[in-house]
DNA sequence: AGGATGACCAGGACGC
DNA sequence: TGCGTCCTGGTCATCC
């Protein structure tokens, strides 16, 4: 029996599924549900299914076959053989669990479930979501322009075409933004959330509030390398679990052991030779963590 | 007009 | 015990 009070004691320290967590789920689903037919769909929170058009959603997907699963920013796109798509966003506490992945900490929060058939047996794909912010939508012909969230997504930082050159152009274009603000802006760079934004700027040794126009080309390059490195490492470790995140088997990720600043307020900086203390502050309404010694706030230049 | 700010959504934890 | 506040990301309205 899980003692939830203990697990959730650091409630402000829970985590959202960001790019690496979503990628982990997508990779798992590709392995587990590709080729399955959708036999049935039910929901206990219809409000978040196609903005309340539950019957429409259900009708569109039943009988369809799962062709592939992919990621767009933090969205999970379940491609169907007809060309239509089911678009899922886990928001803060969502998890997609296949078969027996449910445990005590997730089973009581199942909001929607799909009954799938792989030709030999039936299985359940369950959407567990404590906060009920997660959404499920149907998109005809995979036309992403018809989906509000998908249509507004910026470039994917893990895409091969997202080069250092492209990143530099973005940083120059959004010169008035802070570095952290830029990393978190889904319409520019898709997939980075609070945890990884803090980890990336720490790795690059850049203060989160530096303005884009004030960072050197060398720093832009550093930031680019850190962004790709941190995200790649987190995917390798199957994401970060602080409280809620579970992969599709209900298991936690492993990247939380490698976090250098996130959730470490008042703790010692982990960089060798640094005696700094990790600072936490709300920036643009979200908690940011950084080491004031490793990431000094170099005065932002006034624009010329 | 671009960027910042705040409300909203939901509900568990926590302080009093 | 119970109430108010906090916290979280994405979206949207509003303000400067």
What does this structure look like?
With 304 residues, the protein is an alpha+beta fold. 27% of the residues lie in helices and 20% in strands. The strands form three sheets. The chain has a four-stranded antiparallel sheet with strand order 1-6-7-5. Strands 2-3-4-8 form a four-stranded antiparallel sheet, with helices on one face. A two-stranded antiparallel sheet has the order 9-10. Strand 3 and strand 4 (85-89) form a beta hairpin. The longest helix is centred in the C-terminal third of the chain and has 20 residues, at 217-236. Residues 1-15 have low confidence and may be disordered. It binds a DNA duplex (16 and 16 nucleotides) through residues 4-5, 8-16, 18, 74, 89, 91-93, 130-133, 148-149, 152, 174, 176-177, 181, 184, 186, 193-194, 284-287.
């Amino acid at each position: 029996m899980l003692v939830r009070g203990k697990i959730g004691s650091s409630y402000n320290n829970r985590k959202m599924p960001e790019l690496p967590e979503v990628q982990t789920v997508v990779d798992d689903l590709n392995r587990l549900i590709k080729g399955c037919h959708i036999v049935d769909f039910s929901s206990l929170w219809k409000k978040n299914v196609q903005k309340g058009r539950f019957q429409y959603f259900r009708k569109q997907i039943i009988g369809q076959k799962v062709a592939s699963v992919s990621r767009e920013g933090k969205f999970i796109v379940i491609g169907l053989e007809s060309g239509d798509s089911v678009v899922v966003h886990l928001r803060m506490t969502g998890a997609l669990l296949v078969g027996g992945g449910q445990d005590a900490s997730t089973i009581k929060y199942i909001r929607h479930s799909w009954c799938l058939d792989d030709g030999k047996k039936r299985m359940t794909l369950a959407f567990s979501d404590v906060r009920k912010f997660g959404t499920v939508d149907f998109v005809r012909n995979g036309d992403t322009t018809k989906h509000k969230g998908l249509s507004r997504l910026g470039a994917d930082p893990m895409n091969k075409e997202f080069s250092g050159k492209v990143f530099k152009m973005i940083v120059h274009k959004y010169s008035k933004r802070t570095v952290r603000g830029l990393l978190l802006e889904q319409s520019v760079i898709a997939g980075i959330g609070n945890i990884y934004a803090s980890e990336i700027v720490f790795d690059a040794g850049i203060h989160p509030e530096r303005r884009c126009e004030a960072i050197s080309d060398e720093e832009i390059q550093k930031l680019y390398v850190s962004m790709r490195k941190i995200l790649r490492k987190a995917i390798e470790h199957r994401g970060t679990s602080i409280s809620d995140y579970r992969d599709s088997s209900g298991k936690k990720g492993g990247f939380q052991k490698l976090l250098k600043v996130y959730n470490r307020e008042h703790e010692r900086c982990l960089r060798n030779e640094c005696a700094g203390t990790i600072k936490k502050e709300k920036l643009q309404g979200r908690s940011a963590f950084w080491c004031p010694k490793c990431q000094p706030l170099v005065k932002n230049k006034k624009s010329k």
